Amino acid sequence: MLQKATVTKTVKVRLLEPNRNKEAALEATLETFIEACTLFVRALEEVKADGSKRKLRRYLNGDIYRRVRDETKLPAVLVQNAADIAIEAYLSYLIDSENKYRFLISLRLLTGRVIIPLEASDEHYPYKMLDELMKGEWSLGSVTIIKRRKRKGKEWWAYIMIKKEVEVEIPDDPTPIGIDMGTVNLAVVSTPSTVLFFSGRGWWHRRRRWKEIREKLQKERRFRAIKRIGDKERRYNIDLAHKISRAIVEAAKKERNPVIVMEDLTNIRDDMDFSSEQNYKNHGWFFHRLQSFIAYKAIEAGIPVFLVDPEWTSATCPKCGDAHPKNRNRRRHIYKCQYCGYTLNDDLVAARNIARLFKHVASDYMSGAMGCMTQPLRVRSS
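The structure corresponding to this sequence follows.
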């Protein structure tokens, strides 16, 4: 059986910018500056110029230089800079050198179509993904240009969405990897050979601190500062989700015929009816993001992914099947079965039960469908 899915990624690449001395001038004349770069690149492409940087610079001097300056009305220093950037981009694009300006992006602006180098060093992740895109391993989606404000100036970034269709074969003798998510432990992973705990203490401390800062800034009506705090929290959450998901998939790859099984978080926000503080603590955005990162990394690595109903997974004994709410001590995060005495961390119990549920949903699985948990062996209300 094959599991079909579409893997979509967004590659964030910073756009090339001049040095700090010219940054203010670039901001005011950005479109014209890019137009000058484009004119120089087109001049080199028309004659299929080759040779050293010095040779190409001599070619651009003279009539071409005067024509670009007349058309753009830029100061001489910016025209010279545009010629240097055009030569750098032209050479790196042609000879596939190891500098960081190998890739170019073509954009249609109000002034017409322009070509801009992308800053992607070969040791960085964007370079790898752009290289695979150029080889046809991914298809190009949308491209969004973003301007970021920095303390030392501004940066321009391209958000390039790429995607590809993949087929993951479901093994006949799978090894289910159960993953439970929560605020005490952001993720608990249960495999036949190892157990992983990803503590949520640092995550929750930061969330609470950022919430206090936002409330203070809200009273002072400092809305830009509120946005900066929100952006900082978002970047932290995304980076943390990437690190956790990467570690989980690497652990799964060490198992024989791994299959990742996670809880269905579809209604995680709808089912919340606690205090405002508890609802904030249990905010589902991070866990949906973490789950999506685990899923696409796993599928890309050839590991199937299944979702199951998490009901009773933290209250069912994985040894005897007894299910009772009092089996779980939420304050101490300990699970102790009142029927057989089995004792374990409650989040680990949930992860093991989630892994156990795989055999109940695999036979009825269809791409995009959600698995359903079977009833525990015994459910007691008292």
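The first strand starts at residue 2 and ends at 14.
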